[in-house]
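== Folding the chain ==

***
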Amino acid sequence: MASFGELILFSACLLIGAIAMSLIILWFVVPQWRVNRHFVRTECQVIRHPGMKKIVEQDTSYWQPTITYRYRAKGGTFIGRTYDLLDSRYPSRKKAELIKDSYQLGQKYPCWYDPLDPGTAVLFSGNPLAYWLLLVPVAFLAIGVGGLGYTLWQFTASRERRAAMAQSSASRELFEDDPGAKKFPAIPRVEDVTGSPGTTLAFRLPIAARLGWQLFSIGVGALCWNALVVLFVFLAIGKLMDGQGDWVLLISLLPFIGAGIWLVVHLLRLFWKMSGIGPTRIEISGHPVKPGREYNLLIAQTGTMLLENLEIHLECEEEAVFQQGTNSITASQVVWRQEVFNGAEISIDAGQPFEQRRSLRIPDGAMHSFLSRHNRISWRLSVQAKVAKRTDYRRDFPLIVVPARDRSAPND
């Protein structure tokens, strides 16, 4: 429940950041950008003595300089009263007075007017506040994205694994020697796989891939896409309400709006399909494993679903990287497969995981795990499931196989 609360909190931060980003860009950044890029410079004359206006909001006083000026634009004469496009108010009276005192009655000063609406003009065109306002939604977006990633990791990693990783990082020296790397220089690090104690057996194997990251990436993509689409839709509607409707822009946005709706629907369907699929847990009595020895396995699948078929295989895969001209090509193939479990029509209810105990034996004379620059031999337990009315999934759990002749490893 605590992790679910964090998920709601960080999702809200992400949503607030996206909405705030869109509104700030629409209301502040785009108008200020137009002032800097598209407004036309001309000359104006102050026709009234500059004054000050006091504004009180929630027991807080703000000061605003009032400057009235006359300017010519597109063959007509207009009266302007706007200092900058953001209609800035200052909590410091001294700063507002400095702006007021910089303009004198009857004197001429540069101003900038909107070529699409000559009645809109400003005396100051370089206000950077609009761009600084973006820091607020950026902070919310960073908190939301980072928090969601951390929460999803919390969901997919076991409590024992998180505790073991925290303890390992706290006690590890920065430049300590790695005795395992010296003992088996071409074998992957055992510590990268054996980092989580099991609840029943000695070790819990980590999962190589998580479905939650697919849902997270699609969600972030859908949110960013629709935020941009909404921004352009607001711009198009704003022009339409001002009597400058750009129908070409509106029609060209239709396929982008359709793509955004499809992304949301696809995200909801994927979330529904994955909502009942719980974590898969595999525990083993000893690790690393050796050819010719037998190990106990505990297989547990949680969730609320009906498995049409559940298969677990022990696989050995070879991978080679080679050059073909200027291209680097990676070829991989499963060279050995052994069935560990095969079941059909398995019903799993919430709070009652499906558990099976099996034995695992690496064949005598099998090649150990190997890792080099251009070649790799890896062992894994592969879980493949067909789920009724939901998405099928595959989850791989890596194993480290060491040479059987090594006698320094602890007995199993």
In short: The chain has three domains: 1-39+125-155, 44-103, 157-412. The radius of gyration is 33 Å. The helical segments are 2-37, 93-101, 129-132, 135-156, 159-171, 179-183, 211-241, 247-275. Residues 166-181, 407-412 have pLDDT under 50 and may be disordered.
